[in-house]
Design brief:
Elements lengths: L6 H6 L6 E2 L26 E2 L34 H4 L1 E3 L10 H20 L13 H7 L5 H8 E6 L3 E9 L1 E5 L8 E4 L6 E4 L11 E7 L2 E4 L3 H5 L9 E5 L2 H10 L1 E5 L5 E9 L7 H7 L10 H10 L1 H9 L5 E6 L16 E3 L10 E6 L6 E7 L9 E8 L1 H8 L3 E10 L2 H10 L10 E2 L9
Parallel strand pairs: 5-18, 6-12, 15-17
Antiparallel strand pairs: 1-3, 1-20, 2-13, 3-4, 4-19, 5-19, 6-11, 7-11, 8-9, 9-10, 12-13, 13-14, 15-18, 16-17, 16-19
Helix pairs in contact: 3-4, 3-5, 9-10
Pfam families: 3D, MltA
Enzyme class: lyase
EC number: 4.2.2.n1
């Protein structure tokens, strides 16, 4: 699970078809190839030998620009609750979208791996039912041409205005040790024994979907310790220490990513992944640094912020403490896992808001960066990944992944791929005479006058 949505966000915080209109208020170049990976489950103290990552940028380090396909112009209601409320419109034929053969092969494997969860989960978007995915999921394991699979099994829809914004995240590698020793003084905490998760929906229907985390103090539930309190020793005797990191700045950024690798002194690798969080709100320090004039032009990348924090250790420590959020980890025996419980795959998996994209569904981006353009599978979520057409692309591990994710800020158009027939079913339901009070009128084209 992604706690924060994307490294870049931390610093910045076609064919015409029928459209489902939500209720009015009150009434370019080919993208990079993407490899595959396999799923894994958490375990205890599993060490893996060094694995050299696949580079994700051009060999000369250039970022290749691309020209996005423009979205259709539609009217979107303010603050829609989910994709159905935002409205959907038919997109171009899937076969015409910017998808490479390599992307299709990797995405089909990721989609097939996600199918059990996709068919089991209740879709908060309001667009699909578990049974809708059965045919596509069965076909995913049949082999054959992968691009033809997506072209035959899915239809593209634009959610809301279709205007996409994509950041990036990666699996960082930092220095660590299993025991505390000189040079390794930063604790990597597991879940505290006194941290309580509260589902407020159990207390009131008005609070369904809302949760808080805290601790019991006397007879009251109070907020859990913030970053400053934790760094000052509040967790003594309350949380296990999985390992010890060498650099507090590196550990801070690993918390933002939500999972990563610790390179131990003997060269082994210990993988850790997100377990939970202290319930405090996240504050992006990059925004604070820009507001205070601490960053010079061209310094607002992850690398520039890390350099500033290292050059100003006292001020940097105080600045990081302004982010009260704190992440707790568990050990992993394989690649990092997304919110669905399946392994996320570099250059294939993406985080999305499950209210606007069914988790496990494929999607296509056509953005102003060639490396982010193409086919992705929504297998993860993020604390800052909210709203329609907001995505966080996963780039794997290693220096190339870090460089790409750290500077990823792509804009363009997004299409959600849904099982063939979904749009027709939703259109029929929206116009059915048995629902006269449901204000989902149809238009023959975007911008037409809705019919009563």
């Amino acid at each position: 699970m992604r706690w924060i949505g994307g490294v870049a966000l931390m610093f910045a915080l076609s064919g015409c078809g029928g459209m489902i209109v939500p209720p009015a208020p009150g009434g370019g170049p080919a993208p990079a190839s993407r490899p595959t990976a396999t799923a894994a489950r958490p375990t205890t103290h599993h060490l893996v030998r060094d694995e050299r990552p696949v580079a994700v940028r051009q060999s000369d380090g250039r970022i290749v620009a691309a020209t996005p396909i423009p979205p259709q112009a539609v009217v979107v209601p303010p603050a829609p609750a989910n994709a159905l409320a935002a409205g959907i419109v038919a997109g171009p034929p899937v076969a015409t979208l910017p998808i490479t053969d390599v992307q299709a092969q990797a995405a089909r494997a990721a989609f097939a791996r996600s199918c059990p969860g996709l068919m089991r989960r209740t879709d908060a978007t309001g667009l699909t039912r578990g049974a809708d995915w059965q045919v596509a999921c069965a076909a995913a394991g049949a082999g054959g041409d992968a691009r033809a699979f997506f072209a035959s099994q899915f239809e593209a829809v634009q959610v809301g205005d279709g205007r996409a914004f994509a950041t990036g995240y990666y699996e960082p590698e930092i220095r660590g040790a299993l025991e505390r020793r000189a040079g390794y003084e930063v604790p990597v905490y597991g879940r505290p024994s006194d941290l309580i998760d509260v589902d407020l929906g159990q207390f009131s229907d008005d609070l369904k979907g809302k949760k808080v985390r805290g601790r019991v103090q006397g007879s009251a539930l109070v907020p859990y310790y913030d970053r400053t309190q934790i760094e000052q020793g509040a967790l003594a005797g309350r949380a296990p220490v999985i390992a010890w990191a060498a650099d507090p700045v590196e550990m801070f950024f690993l918390q933002i990513q939500g999972s990563g690798r610790l390179r131990l002194p003997d060269g082994n690798i210990l993988r850790i992944g997100y377990d939970t969080q202290n319930g405090r709100a996240y504050t992006g320090i990059g925004s604070l640094m820009r507001q205070r004039g601490l960053l010079q032009p061209g310094q607002a990348s992850m690398q520039g912020i890390v350099a500033w924090l290292h050059d100003h250790p006292v001020e940097g420590a105080a600045l990081m403490r302004e982010n009260k959020s704190f992440v707790f980890f568990r050990e992993l025996d394989g690649p990092p896992q997304g919110a669905m419980g399946y392994a996320v795959t570099g250059q294939v998996s993406a985080a999305a808001d499950p209210k606007f994209v069914p988790l496990g569904a494929p999607l296509v981006l056509s953005v102003d960066r060639a490396d982010a353009t193409g086919l992705w599978v929504a297998q993860d979520t993020g604390g800052a990944i909210k709203g329609a057409n907001r995505f966080d692309t996963f780039w794997g591990a290693g220096p190339g992944a870090e460089a790409t994710a750290g500077g990823m800020s792509a804009r363009g158009t997004a299409w959600l791929l849904l099982p063939v027939g979904t749009l027709a079913r939703l259109t029929a339901a929206a116009t059915a005479p048995s629902y006269p009070q449901t204000p989902y009128p149809m238009t023959s084209a975007p911008g037409a006058t809705p019919q009563p």
